[in-house]
Amino acid sequence: MIKIKNNETIQTINGYPVMLEATTQFQQVEVSWHFKALIERDTITKRSLFANWFGLSEDYPTLNAFQQRLSYLFGASLDAIVEKSGDYHIVHCTLIYPNPKLIDDINYEDDVWSFLQSTLFKPIFTPTSALEELFAREQETLIKRFDSIQEDPTDIAMEDVLQKLYQNDVYRYHAIGVKEDVTTINLQTLQETYQKMMVEDEQLITITGDVEWNNIKKQLDQFPTGNVKKIQRYSFRKSELADLGKTVKHHDVMQAKTIITYQLPLITSQQERVVLQLAYYIWAVDSHSRLFEEVREQAQLAYEIYGSMNITKQLAYAIAGVESKQTEKALELMKRQQQAMAEQGVTQEEIDLAKKTLWHDLQLELDEIEGVNDIAFSRQLLPHTLSLSEWQQMIAEITPKMIQKMMQQWEYKGSYCLLKKERSIESTN
Q1: ∠ CA 290-315-326, rounded to 5°
Q2: How many Cα atoms occupy the beta-carbon half-sphere of 162 within 13 Å?
Q3: Three-state DSSP state, 263
Q4: DSSP string, 38-106
C-alpha cells in the first residue's frame, strides 16, 4: 500500500507548483491540474462551462479529432470536473495514461505531455460556424444537467436544503453554477474566463504513479513559463447556517425524502477533526451506525438511510427514504440518535467498529490511483493534516467521553420533508 506522507514536498518547476506521489502500485499515471478561486456568482457558471469545453484545442478543434488523438495514446483519458470546497470553486483537469514503462514507444511519454500542453495552453475560442454550433450544444448540455437535478427527488431535496441553510453564503450556488447564466456566456467570455483562471487562480499539479522528478521537470520545461500562485490551505471560519425549521414540500415521488440537519462546531485542531470524523461514522456511516441500526433495521422506518458531512462549511445531515405517513416518526427517531450520543454517550464497541469502518474506507481509496491523487490534493487544502501514522495514533486514543463531548457541540438546524403530491379527484358529474 502507498504511504501517505505528511507535508508532501511541493517543487516549483518552470513556474508551476508540483506535488509527486511516486509509487509503483499502479499501471497508470495520473496528472491533475487544479485551479482554485473564490466562489462568485459572476464566474462559477463560466468556469463550469469551460470545464465542459476542456480538451478542444487549436490542434484538436473537433470532438472527433480529440477522441482520435486519445485513442492513439493507448487509451489515455482526459477530463475536467468542478466542485465546491469551503468558499472555493475548484476545476480539476485530469489526464490518466498508461505507465510509459509498459509501452514499447520511446516517444510515448513526450506525446502524452505534448497533448496535455496543447489542451491546456491552446484551447480554441476563435468563432466559426462549426465552433459556434458546438458551443451551443455544450450550453445545452449544461442546461440539461441543471434540469436533471430537478428530476431526482434526492437532488431536489438537497438543493432546497442547501439554498435555505446557506441563503446568506456563496455556498448556496450549485457547483456547476446558475442555470439562468448559461445562455449569457459566449466564446469571448469563455476565453476571458480561461485567461483569468490561468493568471489569477491558485494552482497545483498533482502527479501519482511510477514517475520521477527528473521526468516531470523534463516535460514541464517544455511548457510556457508559468508564474502561478501555489494553492494555499484553508483558514476555517465560522459559518452561520440559517435555521431550516420544519420545511415540507411536495413532489411526484414514490418515497418521501426526509433530511435532518446539524451545524458542526468550528474545527480548530487536529484532534478535534479526528474526533469529529469518528463521531460522524458512529452516527451515520455504514451498517453499524446509529441511524442505520435504529431507524432502518430496528424500527424499519427507512428504505435507505445515509449521512454526509462537510467540515469546511460545518454541516452534517442525514437522508432517509420513507413512506409519507412515517416521516414524522422517522425524523423524530433520527433526531433522537444524535441526542442520545450527546446525552448518554457511546460505547467502546461502537468506537471500535467505527475505527474499522473508517480504516477500511481509507484502504479502498488508496487502492485506486484516483483516490491516492485526490487525497494528496485534499491534504494541501485542509488544515490540521496528519501523516498516516500520526492519524492512526490519534484515532487509537479517542475515548467515548471525547465522542460525547463532540456530539454535545452539534446544533440542530431543522428538518426537511419532500412528500408525494396529493392528486385531486376529478368530479364525474
Answers
A1: 50
A2: 17
A3: strand
A4: E--HHHHHHHHHHHHHTT-BSSS-SHHHHHHHHHHTTS-EEEEEEEEETTEEEEEEEEEEE-GGGSS-T
Contact 304, 296 (CB under 8 A): yes
Q: Can you read off the three cell numbers belonging to residue 84?
A: 465546491
CA dihedral (43, 49, 50, 54) in degrees, to 10, reads 160
Using CA atoms, how far residue 363 sits from 183, 358, 375, 397, in Å, is 43, 9, 12, 20
DSSP state of 174: B
DSSP string computed for 303-365: SEEEEEEETTTTEEEEEEEE-GGGHHHHHHHHHHHHHHHHHT---HHHHHHHHHHHHHHHHHH
Answer yes or no: are the C-beta atoms of 203 and 230 closer than 8 Å: yes
Burial (CB count within 10 angstroms: exposed 0-12, middle 13-18, buried 19+), residue 425? exposed
- Residue in 353, 373, 375 with CA at minimum distance from that of residue 362: 375
**Inter-residue contact 19 to 222 (CB < 8 Å):** no
Other beta carbons within 10 angstroms of residue 150's beta carbon come to 12
Nearest to 374 by CA among 126, 104, 85: 85
Q: What string of DSSP letters covers 104-141? A: S-TTHHHHHHHHHHHHHH-B-----HHHHHHHHHHHHH
Work out the angle at residue 374's Cα, subtended by the Cα atoms of residues 372 and 378, and round it to the nearest 5 degrees. 120
- Give pLDDT tens digits along the chain (429 positions): 344 444 457 999 999 999 999 999 999 999 999 999 999 999 999 999 999 999 899 999 888 999 999 999 998 999 999 999 999 999 999 999 999 999 999 999 999 999 999 999 999 999 999 999 999 999 999 999 999 998 999 999 999 999 999 999 999 999 999 999 999 999 999 999 999 999 999 999 999 999 999 999 999 999 999 999 999 999 888 888 999 999 999 988 889 999 999 999 999 999 999 999 999 999 999 898 999 999 999 999 999 999 999 999 999 999 999 999 999 999 999 999 999 999 999 999 999 999 999 999 999 999 999 999 999 999 899 887 888 888 899 999 999 999 999 999 999 999 999 998 765 434 333
Nearest to 302 by CA among 278, 280, 277, 332: 332
360/288 Cα distance (integer angstroms): 13
Question: Whole-model pTM?
Answer: 0.92
C-alpha dihedral sign at 2, 223, 110, 201 = positive
